[in-house]
Every structure is written in structure tokens, then in C-alpha cells.
Batch of 4 targets.
Target 1
Amino acid sequence: MLHRTEGVVLRTRDYGEADLIVSFLTRDFGIIHTFARSPRKTKSRFGSSLEPLSYVKLSFWGKENARLPRLTQSDIIKSFQKLRESVDCFLRVSELLKVILICSPERDVSYNMFVFLLRALSEFESGCLNPLIMLSIKIKLLKITGFAPRLAGCARCGASGMNFHFSDGAVLCNKCGHTLGRTQSLSPGCIRLYDCLSRWTIEKIYRVKTDDGLIGELTSVIDSHVKYYISGESRQAGGQAG
């Protein structure tokens, strides 16, 4: 059966001498992994449409819920080439793509996620190196996937607390957080900034001046939280984000 949709290239992996396994976040099918024959050859019909971050129209062939359908066509709608030209920018955005791949179940359709990613890529083109914009988008992405950390009060009893426990993905009070594990102490300003960035629009964030120290503190805990889940430590520890 032939399927047509739109999608963003999340990742490509070499397969054999000239083939690729291409992962997309699609509008109608969620995350899918497809087999592309010979796209690495010079005269491939796919051209540059399979570069990571590319927004494309794609067609793939396979039975419903096939594990690895065959990619038959991919045409660029928007390349987001500017994001690939800066190594620093590409690495930052790639971390978000990893979060999507790890936190979103395969074939779980989320139109909100798809639209959010396209809007985020467009924002990154004009403000990828703006730390507050990057931080806000990362927080909102974690909320959509259900893996956002909980910083407002102890996740177990609701009491006040300032120590973030990575295994729980949340702040715990001294009584509930007595168990061993990696922690990071947070300032009240950091917790307030997290709450604001979770709610504020991008337009408002552009108008706000924020202390660099608070941005650095919150960026540190969010990045460490993301790396904790990407590395698989949370699955080994049995942790779950709140």
C-alpha cells in the first residue's frame, strides 16, 4: 500500500554501501523509520531531501504498521539549510531531535508535536544562538512528550524543596529525597524562570531581559535532565519524569 504524507527528517543511518534507514516525524503517522534504496549514490532521485532537519513531502510503500516500509519519494518543502551550516546550531537542534526519537513512541500520531517541531525549526533559523529561545523551546518540547521535569514543590508530598533529583525527574524535599542519587540544588529564581518559560510565548520571550546566571543555571539542569534520559540512565534506575 502506498502512503503519502509530510515529515521532518530526524535521523539517517547508513545501511550497506549506498542505502539508508531514514527516520521521520510525520504529520499523519507519527515517527516512522523507512528504507531508502541508493540515496547515497550521486544520481539518486532523492537528491538532498534526506538531510536531517529537511521538511519534505514523502511517499512510502508497505503494509499497515510495517516495521521498515520502503521510501519511494521525498521532495523538499523547506530545507532548513541554515541550521546545518552552523555546527553549534546543528548540534543544539540535534539534541531536540534525539528527545523526540526517544520520548515519542513509534507510529504514535501527534499533530501538535509535528506543528511544534516545524515552528521550532523556523524560530531556530532566526534565533538558534539565543539561549533563552532555545531553552524555552526545549522545555515546551519536554512538556509535549511528557518528560518535562517537575520543579514546583516536592513531587512526592508537595512540600517546598530545592534539590532536583535526576532519577525522579523532579524536585524532592529533604524528607522524601533522602535516598542516594544524583542531585542538583536550584535557586528560587531558577524555578520561577522555568515556570515562566513553560508558559510564555516566543514573542514575549524576545522582549524579556533575564539574568545570565539564571539562564545558565536552568540550562544546566534541563540539559542534564535530557542527557540523563538520552543516556538511558533513567531506564536503568527505573525513574520516571513527573
Target 2
Amino acid sequence: MKLPNFYQDQHLITLKMSMGIPQDAYGTLEASKLDYFNLTKVASSEGLELKDLSQIEQLDDNTLAIAGQRILLYIRDTTNFEPKFHFSNCQTLQKMRETNRIGRYVATNCETGNFLINYIKDNKPQACTKRLKVCRYCLDFLAWQGYSHTIWSEVKKSRAVEHFNISDFFKVYPKSFHPHNHQDSIHAPLNIYPKDWRNISSSVREKSGWICKKCDINLSAVEHHCFLHVHHKNGQKNNNNRENLEVLCIRCHSDEPNHQHLKSSKTYQDFIKIFDTT
């Protein structure tokens, strides 16, 4: 008997929507820490207020999650500054955890970019919806689209903040841990390169000007093309959306998680001989 794929069943999706359950929210055999009402709040611009940061889980890819949902995090109450929203366990959040700073943290994965803020004046809160900017330390922590706090110019960093797109972020790091192409032996696509990967890689590198997005090394000389790679940010070789692809030189690529094996390759050694001036 062939079991139905409940992750793609239109009747189930329609039922969930009628119940106010986010389409990409799925249960597990374990009891969830949040009910579906609160999961719906996470999906809204209002967000879900948390007691403290201990409710937030840091995933292996350094993104943030709660009850099986990747989220953005920000502080709702503010006086004379606009808080930034976070998507990773950056140095700011690490310091908050270490110093046990208490605040009205809010978790949301709404993609509108609008956040509910309480401006406090004369000890009286005034609620308003505000577009907040992304945390620069988060961009640097995940090296989002090659962002580098130390290498990039201030102009380039400011441009990256202004152009950050929440929808693009959730395309690379899906909200739900149970995507529609659920990872089981029946429905999961193989995590392998597509047949036209050579053409995809060449096109992406060419559009980048043959420049590494992290260290800005120029590898446009034909004999240096082999030193420039295309990295899958979420580790899925079958996800070739442009937002998931990052052009990196072999040295920067080897510094990515689970890519240390590149350092033992002949190509890496050749790169070091040519470009390592230290």
C-alpha cells in the first residue's frame, strides 16, 4: 500500500488553513512546546512574546528556532532607539544570554518586514508598527550573501542592510523543519548535484565577475577559474535557487562547516602557493 504524502495533500492544507494553522507548520511525535494558536502568532506581524532567551533554540546552522519553526527575534519595548531584528545567535544575543538581560523578546517569521514596537515615553507605551533593520552582526555571523564585517567597506555593509530581504532569507533557511519535500525515503530528492551543475556553476561565477564574495579575491584569469567554487549555503546540492548559492574561493570555501576536506586537495595547495603572500 502506498502511503499518501500528507505534506502535499491539498485537502489537509485546506483544512489547516481553515483552522488558522500556518501551511508550513507540521507536528511531530513529540509534544510541541507551543500550541497552534501561538504558532499562528509567530507567523503574524504581532509575533509571540517570550519570557526569556532560554525558549529560543540555536540550530546547527546558527539560525534561531522555536518549536520547529525558524524565527526572527527582536525586543518589543524601546525608549529612544530602534531595535534591530536578529536571525542568528550573533554576538549581541550571546552577550544578552551571558548577562541575563531581561527584555520582552518577540519571535516572528512574518515576511512583511513590519514589526510591532512599543515606544515608551514618560513610562507610557505607545504601540506602532515599524520597519526595522537587520542586525549587522547576524549578517556577518552567517556571512549572508558574502557579508564581511572586517573586509567590506561601510558603504557596502550599509547597502547590504538596506537591501536585506526576509523572504529571501527564508528561501535559504525554510521556516519549517518539515519542508514540503519531506525528508523520507519515499519523497525526499537525492542530495546530489543536478545534471546541468557545470553550466549553473559557470554562469553564477561569471555573473559574480569571478570574484570571491568573502575575501574579494579576483580569479577572472582563465587559469584561475578552478579556484573559484559555488557553495550551497544550506548544504542541499539540489537547492540551486540563487539565494542559496554563494561564490567562494577555495580557501573561503574550505572554512565553511563540513568543508575542511578541501584543504587536503591539490587544488587548494596550488591556490596557496600562488596567492598566499604571508
Target 3
Amino acid sequence: PNYLEQFRLIAVGIASGLGAFTGFAVYKVIEAKRRESKYFTPIEKIGHALDDIAPGKEGFIMVNGEHWKAISDEFIPKGSKVKVIKMSGSKVVVKKYED
């Protein structure tokens, strides 16, 4: 009976420690994803659409090798050139780019 109580305490201690570590790691990952890029601002840069972007819907673009979540007021087909107009939170607002 004494061994069972010790085992239970050890198991609860290990589970609590692993849970705290996992919670902290998840928090840091979410924090890093929400943080905007400090080193590169895509405003006024030219990229291309990785997805179809419909008005009011999100899609992804690539600018200088970085993926960005994008929104637009116009339909932009996949593969089209886009120009980044501004940031809107963690997303970029884009429009079609004509050479």
C-alpha cells in the first residue's frame, strides 16, 4: 500500500511537470506566430498569389521567399502577381499587379 501511494505521487508530479512544460512551449509557439515580422516589411513589395484570393476571403502569397496570409477587395487568381498595399493585423492587404 505504501508503494502505491508513492507511485501515485511520483506519477502526479511527472504529469504536472510535463503539462506545465507543454503549456509553456505551446504558449511560446503561439506568441511567435502572432508576432509580426520585425526584420522585413512587405509593404509596397511585389509577390505572387499561392492561392485564389476572393474578396473577403483569405489566401496566401509569397513575397521575398516568405509566406503571408493575404486579403483583397478583388478576385486574384492563383499565380498572379500582387502588390502589398498595407498590413492589417497579421495579414497583408494586396491588389493585382500589372507590369
Target 4
Amino acid sequence: MAQALRGLFPEGGPLPHEVNLPLLASAGASEVIIRMLDVHNDSPPSVDVRDPLDDSTPLLLASQNGLSDTVQILIDAKADVEAQNDRGVTALMLAAAGGHVDVVSLLLDANANLNRQSTRSQRTALMEAARKGRGAVAQMLLNAGAQADLQDADGKTALVLAISANEQRVVRVLLEAKADMEVKCRQGKTAIMHAVGESKEIARLLLQAKPNLEAQNPDGETALILAMKNLSYDTVQLLLEAGASTHTQTGDGTTAESLAHQKGYEVMLIVLSNAKKVQKR
């Protein structure tokens, strides 16, 4: 599209003041944007003009599409790096979600707010990177001072969002940054509780960081109980090897062993029995 727009506005040709700047930015038509700003130097068009579709500014659109040259031009023209679209999302959040490392770097250099949260989802740029599996961006944001333990509208941290998306690389990055594993979401679940519902690889990563295995959700369920309910045999084994208690009771008095009996989880009973034998040695 950028080539088509350059054809419409050839160098030296007429350039109307009413050209759609958001469209030019989203297409990466950098040369045309520069000409617009130069030609109308006495009365330049606003670089923060809004797209009627979602209230995005040119910078938001260019950042979303990973157009670093256009982003730099707009930043140099004093575009508002904190502008938000109709969902309260900023350019940094969009660039982070897209994994656009170069754009993220430009926005950070322009002092974009690392920890700003969108108005609807309450997610930060780090959260967007985490849930989309953008490990390099997540590392960049953390290095720049992003807070790892802020919570979104569901009470989920970047770590929990990465776990829920089964993004092992980002989980590892966040754990290395000492992200808090004990923050509870609105459902009252900690990171390890979320992990046991995803994959044993994710659970293994968290267990290496030694989370509290006796933390309970509002129903009194531990990660072990939740793993058993999911019939996640391998994860149950990992939890037992990590020292998860089989005696912790839920709100109605259920333990891991009584749950296995109630549900007829024969394989789980064998796993629990073997764990007891090992613990007695």
C-alpha cells in the first residue's frame, strides 16, 4: 500500500492538506508523511489526528504494524506517545503485543510509560508481550524497569498470562526476573495453580522456583487437588516429588487421597501410595 500511496503523491506533485494521516501511517508511507509535514510547515496537520474506526492515532497504527521508520518520523514530529485508542491501549502495548522490538526500543527512548495499564483490560505492555509469547520484548521491558507483578482486570499478572498461553520462554524470562508466583488472581489462584491446568513443562518450570504448594483457592483447593481434578498424572507426580502435601483439606474436608477414592481415580491412588512410600524412606 505504501508504494501505491507514493504513486498517488509523487515527489514534487501536489499534496492536499486533507490527506488521511492515519492511513499513511498504517501503510508505512514515510516519505509522503515527511512531505506533508514539510509542505505544511507553517500550518502542519496534527500528527495525533484520530482514525474514526477505533480512535487510533498515526503513531498507534504505525506501532501496531511494526513500522519503525514511520514511528521515528512521528516521534520526531512530537506525536503523543501516551495516546490511547478506544480500548485505552497505547503504542507501546501494541508494539509489545506484536513483538516489534525496534518499535518498542524507539518508544522506550521516547519515554513511553512502561507500566501504564489499558482502560478496559488493565493490561500493561509487559502483559501484552507475555500473553503473546514475545520473549525478547518481555526481556527488553523488564530490563527497562517494567513492573512484573501488576495485575489486569482479572487479577492476572504477566506471569499468569504467559502460563495461560503456554508460553514457556516468557515464563522463564519472568521467573528469572523474580516475578511473584504467589499473587492471586480474582479466582484466588496462584501461578502454580494456573500452571497445573496447562502443561507439565510449565509446572516443572515453576516448581524449580519453589512456589508455595500449600496455597489454597477460595474453595480450599491446592495445586495438587486441581491437578488431580484435571487428571494430570504427570503433573501430580511432579507436585508430589516437590513435596506437595496429600493431607491439606479443602473447605469441605476433602484431601488428595479422599478425592481419589471419591472419584475412583485408581491411577491417582497408585501415584499417591507410591509417593507415601518414598516419603517414609
